[in-house]
Amino acid sequence: MSDRPPEVGRFPWTHQAMIGLARIRVPLGFAFGVVVLGLAQPTARTLVIGGAVACVGEALRIWAAGHLNKSREVASSGPYRWLAHPLYVGSSAMGAGLAVASGSILAALLIAVYLGTTLTFAVKHEEAFLRRTFGDRYDRYRRAGVVDVQRRFSLAQAIANREHRAVAGLAVAVLLLLLKAMYNGSFWRAAGTRIVKPGG
Questions:
Q1: Taking CA atoms, which of 15, 80, 145, 181 is between 20 and 30 Å from 35?
Q2: pLDDT (tens digit, 9 = 90+) per residue, 135-190?
Q3: Contact of 189 with 195, CB cutoff 8 Å
Q4: Are the C-beta atoms of 49 and 100 separated by less than 8 Å?
Q5: Using CA atoms, how far apart are residues 79 and 141, in angstroms rounded to an integer?
Q6: Other C-beta atoms within 10 Å of 50: how many?
Q7: In this structure, are residues 147 and 76 in contact, taking their beta carbons and an 8 Å threshold?
């Protein structure tokens, strides 16, 4: 009896759901982002702590993207030696950081729902593709950590994998939260600056 997990193809509705979610993941992320920004109540403290956590997550993503040759091999160097899905782990850390930075429990819950749903489907879809494409090579990697390819980190490879877009997205998200904190006055209060209202 095989210990290989069942292929997603045996469950057509699951496969279609994963494909559908993969297609709308980015626009869905923008929609969630707008709602999160509306709910956010960031402060200087939450921005510093959350921003640091998010940067660690993005650093992991950059490291992973610099070792990933998509659809051509089973990545097993860099962070892939210890984590099967370092890009998604990095995304989760980024999400956790932005949840902290938002300073809002409701915003954090929305981020958790979005990431929990989309990343779960993404992992299942990716693993089905890798097993279908690489068969035993992927199973050996997952089962025993077999390393077929040793390579050094390549910034050019990370850029080829479009990781600079994730960096830009994180920068925009943090900037928007910073602007909201400044607009609400929480940033200046934390900095010890007295806010003078017109006519006050």
A1: 15
A2: 888 888 887 765 656 778 999 999 999 999 999 999 999 999 999 999 887 665 65
A3: yes
A4: yes
A5: 13
A6: 23
A7: yes
